[in-house]
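Form P-L/3: holo structure prediction, ligand zinc ion.
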Amino acid sequence: MDKLFIFDTTLRDGEQVPGCQLNTIEKIEVAKALEMLGVDVIEAGFPVSSPGDFNSVVEISKAMTWPTICALTRAVEKDIEVAAQALKYAKKKRIHTGIGTSEYHIRYKFNSTQEEILERAIACVKYAKRYVEDVEFYAEDAGRTDNEYLARVVQAVVNAGATVVNIPDTTGYCLPTEYGAKIKYLIDNVDMKNAILSTHCHQDLGMATANSIMGVLNGARQVEVTINGIGERAGNTSLEEVVMAIRSHKELKIETNINTQRIYPTSRMISSLMNMPIQPNKAIVGRNAFAHSSGIHQDGVLKNLSTYEIIDPKDVGIDDNAIVLTARSGRAALKNRLSLLGIEVDDDHLSELYQRFLEIADRKKDITDEDILALAGKETDKMHRIKLDFMQTTSGKGVKCIGVVGLDIAGEKFQASATGNGPVDAAIKAVKEIIKRQMVIEEFLIQAINKGSDDTGKVHMQVSHEGQNYYGFSAHTDIVVASVEAFINAVNKFVI
Ligand code: KIV
Ligand code: ZN
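OUTPUT (holo model):
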């Protein structure tokens, strides 16, 4: 069996998505979940980009035990120095440095020449080697870089000491055959010494997983991925798809270190924390990924699972019989469940979550992992200036929908009512009566967590205010309350 290294960039490339930004504590939670999942490398951030990113790399480096912690830089000495500083506490550290190599980048971004870029590539690797042994070089936009020139760059950086060379299809442009041929060309024409090639494929044309797999089939031994495929524009390659494709095809004789049973909980946790809902038909982790609804399929699956199922849902951590918590469960049970889901909490946070857990348990018989993740993902409103004090709506067919809302704004109480074309519209209009700002709901997504009419609904909302977008999230068994809370959550981000 050949080992395929899994390089997770959820916290760097994934986190570049507007509205997905996490604070340091949340990033540590994600990193711990990734460690439990078994990823080999965690790209923790781009330290020179902001003090917040710097600090997150420092704290993640301290918190992780065995994965390599990687920090991104441009081919700039200052970036490399800052990255090395941020990685100070990492037990295993890597600097990921690089530069654009396509004609588009060389001409339009750098106004430079191939020879100059080659020199800068060598120089940045040599500079990073002064600080760490493990240096990964990325040839940005390698997908659109001429193979002959790319091979010269790869050879030069390997000679300079790069341990991994990343071949990003930055724009998601390549066809799988083309990307596979590129990796093969490099394997055939470069003396890689002990270095390995890495894939880093974007999803712009929906081919990220196919391209990554073609890269692996042609000799790449590291894949750069994110959980749920999150990332800028159409996203990155999703970890779960590559890992399960490799695992399902034993004939490839390739293995990863991923504990696949952690895939589903990790995916749910990250979706909640990052306010990024998962499309129901998403491969491996979508709600419908294993739901056989057509009669012909159901008949086959009942006779023998292998007729229509290529993966046992339990292998990715979906367990319909998972232990559920109820109103009688204690704090220890909640803490244990959180921990199994990769969320470690201190006593104060546990008390707060436990109160909210009891509120849900009052309204819902069985509390599942999904509820717990939504509960943990929901921001505490302790620090918020605007809080929902109470609300009541009337709705129905043939009647006017009315919303009455009470808000607590920095300790002062306000109340308003409004009518609307539905209860959510009425209640949000009532909120707008109190907070008289220009604010427009740009996106509004309601998702049931599990099944059943007593289920918790998750609401993601994007609200624009003075040309900026703000994101809100909430979860509640009453979807009208969840909607209003998500709206208030977003508003709290600009009403300071
Ligand atoms: O897509 C890309 O090219 C990148 C590099 C910075 C590695 O994310
Ligand atoms: Zn990228």
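COMMENT: Residues 13, 168, 170, 200, 202 surround zinc ion (ligand 2) (CB under 6 Å).
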